[in-house]
Design brief:
This protein is α/β, with parallel strands linked by helices. The chain has helices at about 60-75, 80-95, 100-110, 115-135, 160-175, 190-200, 215-220, 235-245, 270-280, 300-315, 335-340, and strands at about 20-25, 25, 30, 35-45, 50-55, 150-155, 175-180, 205-210, 230-235, 250-255, 260-265, 295. It has two domains: about 20-255, Aldehyde Dehydrogenase, Chain A, domain 1, CATH 3.40.605; about 260-320, no CATH class. It is built from eleven helices and twelve strands.
């Protein structure tokens, strides 16, 4: 009889992360109270409350934008090579605190520690290194050297720290300052990043983090002194933002959700196709803008593919996000789980 081996639990310790009972807003280089009612962020795997987080009102957002506007004069005047030094320093600190960031991301988001440790956090550091390299080369690349001003940025909960890096690193490299609102279900790594900015001696006001839900995001997008709006999230909210920004003169970039199809033809290598299919829809619990949520298969290989796919799905391990054996972690929130169901 063939023996069946199971993986022993391989939990990552959460002791490396010091989660405070409550967090404020990060404005002008300091943590400060928010005017709105605080909200709770939870561990979606256990529904344990992780921390209470401040809600930024429109007045708080105004303070953050004013701080960013004041810092813009100093930051934009620095040579690209000087801005690069700060970005390099942030990248190095992210590497040094990588394990702490990975554990916190998995606790707050629900993604497997293998993904946050081996994909998200290394890419975050890589983005800051990459854009540090661009900071003194913009004029040679034909992009110009005139910064836009204050960037208002709103990011989603599926890759919280990686989305932050995508938004903040290029904005800073080009001489802009930032007011960023993380998703309300995943604010903790953005707030730890604020601490990293202080550790890197980034000038006060260059990066500001305002936490809250949709109203806070709307205040960032609608603020008259924001020069550029960047949003990643749902198509529905993207349309609302496009309408709000229209005619204002603000620059706008939108990265919106769109589901993709996997297409398998008869001459495909079936086992490799199966790996692509599984990765396309189960990576990060399917919380991906371009998740492969449709599968189109040539009829002549349909049965063979489905048998192989079912066999492969039976090996996926669903479990504790902090267990290094887990393939599929927790859905990010009860609301998202209800939407999926």
């Amino acid at each position: 009889m063939m023996a069946i081996f199971e993986y022993a639990p391989a939990p990552e310790s959460r002791d490396i992360v010091d989660i405070k009972p409550s967090y404020g807003l990060f404005i002008d280089g300091e943590f400060t109270d928010g005017s709105g009612s605080p909200f709770k962020t939870i561990n979606p795997a256990t529904e344990e409350m992780l921390a209470e987080v401040a809600t930024a009102s429109a007045d708080d957002v105004d303070r953050a934008v004013q701080a960013a506007r004041k810092a813009f004069g100093v930051w934009s005047a620095l040579p690209g090579s000087e801005r690069a030094k700060y970005l390099f320093r942030i990248a190095r600190i992210i590497q040094e605190r990588a394990r702490e960031l990975a554990v916190l991301e998995s606790l707050d988001n629900g993604k497997p520690i293998r993904e946050s440790r081996d994909v998200d956090v290394p890419l975050v550091a890589a983005h800051f290194f990459y854009y540090a390299g661009w900071a003194d080369k913009l004029e040679y690349a034909g992009f110009g050297t005139r910064p836009l001003g204050v960037a208002g940025q709103v990011i989603p909960w599926n890759f919280p720290l990686l989305m932050l890096a995508w938004k903040i690193a290029p904005a800073l490299a080009c001489g802009n300052t930032v007011v960023l609102k993380p998703a309300e279900t995943t604010p903790l790594t953005a707030l730890l990043f604020a601490d990293i900015c202080r550790q890197a001696d980034l000038p006060a006001g260059v990066v500001n983090i305002v936490t809250g839900a949709g109203e806070t995001g709307a205040a960032v997008v609608g603020h008259p002194d924001v020069d550029k709006v960047a949003f990643t999230g749902s198509t529905e909210v993207g349309r609302v933002i496009a309408r709000a920004v229209a005619g204002s003169g603000k620059k706008l970039t939108l990265e919106l959700g769109g589901k993709a199809a996997n297409i398998v033809f008869a001459d495909a290598a079936i086992d490799q196709a199966v790996e692509g299919i599984v990765n396309g829809i189960f990576f990060n619990q399917g919380h991906v803008c371009c998740a492969g949520s449709r599968l189109l298969v040539q009829e002549s290989v349909q049965e063979e593919l489905l048998v192989a796919l079912k066999r492969r799905l039976a090996t996926l391990r669903v479990g504790d996000p902090l267990d290094k054996n887990t393939d599929v972690g927790a859905i990010n929130s009860a609301e998202q789980l209800a939407k999926i169901r």
